[in-house]
Amino acid sequence: MEIGAQDVEDCSKEAVNMICGNFLGKLDSTEVFNLSIPIFNPGRSEPSLEENVCRMDFDSDGEKVAVVVSFK
What's the start-to-end Cα distance of the chain, in Å? Predict the structure, then answer.
């Protein structure tokens, strides 16, 4: 079975969701962070990123949160 672009996007979004949720909970366990579903931006669509790098953008209470992920 071949891993397609949609598989990479879906798995990346899920992983970043779990990591950010864990991180924000440890950052301040008394605060509630309302994150949107991450928006996947592959490196090839953003000139400042390499090919095996993507950026995930979240909205959180009217602010923006971005996570950059590198695939090896």
Answer: 19
The H-or-E segment that residue 10 falls in is helix 5-27
pTM of the model: 0.66
11 HSE (CA, 13 A, CB side): 7
| H or E stretch at 56 | strand 53-60
The encoded tokens of residue 29 equal 């366990």
The secondary structure of 31-48, three-state, reads: CCCCECCCEEEEHHHCCC
Predicted confidence at residue 61, as pLDDT, reads 80
Bridge partners of 68, per DSSP, are: 55
Query: Are the CB atoms for 49 and 57 separated by under 8 Å?
Result: no
Tokens of 61: 């209470």
